[in-house]
Amino acid sequence: MKNTILKYYGVPLVLSVILLALFPILPSCGGGGGGGGGPLYSNATLTGVWMAKATVGPDTLIDSFRFDGIGSMVEEYILNPGTLPSLYNVQADGSLTYDMTFAYDPTITITGKFTSATAATIGATVSGTAYSGTLRKVMNLGACQGTWSGTMSAPLANSFQITVDNTGTIVSGSGFATSFSGKLFCESGDATGIMITNASSPLDRVQFHSGTVVTGATVTISGNYETNNGNGTYTLVK
């Protein structure tokens, strides 16, 4: 029988039978992150615009950032952004770290863990105070698109208007007699952004913090604003 196998099917078949006996075929593991078939995370998970919200700590803050998907934060939509790019890292089990840089304050390292491909829990210690919260991907950059009428309370009481395009970019505005730029993003009922007016300080840069979106006959965003010399509340209506 051995000679017959070699004659009609050749040596490769015999070798294949031997290899199968030694190394049986195992079922595929799929795209799991090790055990249980969970999702596999990487730096590519953290790409696009994400919104960080502090839910535990002395301040309820919402900031937004853009990540490049290969290990760098490339844009910070905050009051005084620092030197960019800054590094981030995502492990296969969903553990992540990224650095927030500031023009006038020390860098803060954020740690956390993904709970899905579009959300994570995060935490950091700032000047000895612990913060924790969520990091969520902005799924629709144009969710805040449109023309908004805004008001700011004292100490920098003002009325203004901004127009936001389908990428979340502030493309025009009025109320400060100067050009407007910046970003405004909405996600899961929260809003955050930065308005750059090129007006005299402190109205040259206004960050919208802790915005809450309420929909109805009109859409309203309200929360806290921050400048380099005075904070208060704001309201945007569309």
Give an overview of the whole structure:
With 238 residues, the chain is mainly β. Strand 15 and strand 16 form a beta hairpin. The longest helix is centred in the first third of the chain and has 12 residues. Helix content is 8%, strand content 50%. The chain has two domains: 95 residues, Beta Barrel (Lipocalin), CATH 2.40.128; 92 residues, Lipocalin (Beta Barrel). The strands form two sheets. The chain has an eight-stranded antiparallel beta barrel with strand order 1-2-3-4-5-6-7-8. Strands 11-10-9-16-15-14-13-12 form an eight-stranded antiparallel beta sheet, with no helix packed on it.
Strand proportion:
over 45%
Would you give the CATH topology of the largest domain? Lipocalin
Provide the low-confidence segments as ranges. 1-35
Number of helices: 2
Number of strands: 16
Q: Given the C-alpha coordinates, what overall shape results? A: globular
CATH class of the largest domain: Mainly Beta
Fraction of helical residues: under 10%
Straight-line distance between termini: 85 Å
Name its key features:
single chain; 238 residues; mainly beta; Lipocalin; 2 domains; eight-stranded antiparallel barrel; eight-stranded antiparallel sheet; 2 helices; 8% helix; globular
